[in-house]
Every structure is written in structure tokens, then in C-alpha cells.
Give the backbone structure.
Amino acid sequence: MSNSIYFNEYHQMLRDQVRRFVETEIIPHGDPWEETGVTPREVLRKMGELGFLGIRYGAEYGGSEMDILATIVLAEELGRSTFGGFAITVLVHTDMASPHLANAGSLVQQQHYMPGIVKGETITAVAVTEPGAGSDVASIQTKATPTKGGWLINGSKVFITNGVHADVYFVAAKTNPDGPRSQRTTMFIVEKGSPGFTVARKLEKMGWRSSDTAELLFQDCFVSEAQVLGEQHHGFYAIMKNFQNERLVLGAQALGEAQKALDLTLDYVRNRKAFGATLWDKQAIRLRLAERQTEVEAARQLLYHSAWLDSQGVDCVKQVSMVKAYCGELVNRVMYDCQQFHGGSGYMRGMPIERMVRDARVQSIGGGATEVMYEEVAKRL
């Protein structure tokens, strides 16, 4: 996107570097990760060494101090890897979990954790979703009650990405049950191995297979006062604040996936012959691919403009909600057609397009389902 009005030469350099990394370190090696159900830690450490895990964080912690548009570049290029599980493992760490520390952490907390996070040595997860509460954050039931020197957390969390292998978890718990709905929750820093905190089980998923997902259990899990993250009873606002970033990132990942699927399919139909000609010679196929590419390009401009608005400090909840809803649905339409034009081979395990179809399905669910996003849009019409 070197000719885009939204990006400068540093963004383009980042894009080139991430794309090279994906092509050499991810695409040739990702298949076994789908079987083991996890992206290897050494991959994350390599990304840390290259500076990919701290592009928005302070130089004092090894970060690059870039902007949201740089994050969009990272997410798009990770989406192009064809391994959605790998992409989400990284993006949860960089843009859904660790921002809670960057946004609300004290200087002591940041100095303690942030260098390892940027290096890829300390992997993070965010634990908000519960069996009975997802986007409805105010309805979480996990509780933290005061005790001598800190708090005791009790409850469970589910669908937690990086939940099995993370080192540090940012956990939402209810601390003010009788207060206003938006002032009941506090965020806590919980380290792996804390007494009373267990990974209850690893969850098996339809897609994102190279990403570990867990159910977490807290039974009188003690956390000290020093592990309170941000202002007490204001965790709801912290979660809402980062939802904007999360939804832009997921939109960018989805678009990266959609574009890669179209690229793979274009190559396939130009070489696959049927009835004496290539599939590309069939007008019905050409026009459908042209239609999908047009939609992807339109979505890309919505994404870039929304990210730019966010970078300028403009209230853009409506636009970001549109990005998440539209891109999450579009990537699934794209994958349907791309698999269709691959024919029987597109249904076979081991083909990138088969994996990408399964991975894409969750894009309209996770991080705010399409229906929730359109409610946010409707409120602002």
C-alpha cells in the first residue's frame, strides 16, 4: 500500500519486514502447529527480537512508539499468513491483552512486565469472557472480595486465547456488585502459577487450531494490592476503551485473510483447466472474483480511514463497529467463493483454503459479534 494516503515510509518498511517474516518463518512451518494446537514460543521470541511485539510501546521498554496504523499493517500481514491461529496468538498478545497494562498500569507494573512482553518472553492473555457474559461486560459474575493485603478472586473464564500458555493474565472481576453497572468491575494482574488459579481445560476449536484456548478457574485466588490494574471499579471503562483497538485489529486480520484467499484463488483458476480452457476463462468466475475484490478494497478503505480517525483522537465508535461487522462478514463471503472455485481440492485437509475457511468463521463472532456491532452502529445513526 505504498501509494496510500494513510501510510508513510516507516509503515511500508514495517509491512515489507512482516511480510518477509511470514513468508519465511510461518507459511513453511505452520502445519505442525495446527496439530499441536499452539504457536511455538520461539516464534514469538523471534518476533520480539525483530520489534514486532512492541510497535506501539515506549522506547524505554524496547518499543517503536508507532501508531494505530502500524498495528493495522501488522494485523493485515499476519492475516495473510493463512494461519489464523498464529495470527490471533500474536494479536491477542500485542493488541488485546498487553494494552491493558500499557493503558492503565503503574510505572512499577510497566517496568516489571513490559520489557518481557515486548521481547516475547512474557506472553499475555486477557480474561473477560465467561460462560454467561461476553460482549455484555457489565454482566460478568467472577468476583474479587477484599482480604488482608489484597483480594480473593472466585469465578471462571472461558474462550480465553493464549489461556493455556500465557505467563500473565489481565483478569476482570466484579468488586463493587451494588454500584452502577459501569462501575462494578476491576482489572487484576494474575501470574501463571498463582495459588487458586488453574487452567481448567484446553478447548478444542473448529478453526484457529494453532492458537491455544482455555477455560480458567479461580478458587480463592489471592492477588495483592500491587496487582490491581488501574483504578478500582473502573475496569469496564478500560475494557471498552480497548474494544476499539481490538475491533480494528480483527477487521485488519480479516482483510488480510480475504486478500490472501483471493490471491491464492486467482492463481489457482488461472492454471486449472476444465472444458478446454482455464477456470479464469469462465465469465461467471471472473466476475465473482472481481466483485469480491471490489468489496475487499472498499472494506480496506473503511478500515484505514477508521484507524486514521482513531489516530487523530476522533470519536469513531460507529466507524470501528462498521469495520468489525463488515469485515467479519466479508471474509466469510470471500472464503465461500474461494473454496468453491478451488473445487474438490478446496475441501481437502492440507490445502490453505480449507484451513482459511474454518479460521474465518469466527471473525464474525469473536471480539464483538456482527449483531452486537450493528447495535452499536444503530445507536449512533
Observations:
- Strands lie at 124-127, 143-147, 150-161, 168-174, 185-191, 197-202, 213-224, 228-229, 273-274, 277-278.
- The mean pLDDT is 96.
- The domain at 237-379 is CATH 1.20.140.10 (Butyryl-CoA Dehydrogenase, subunit A; domain 3).
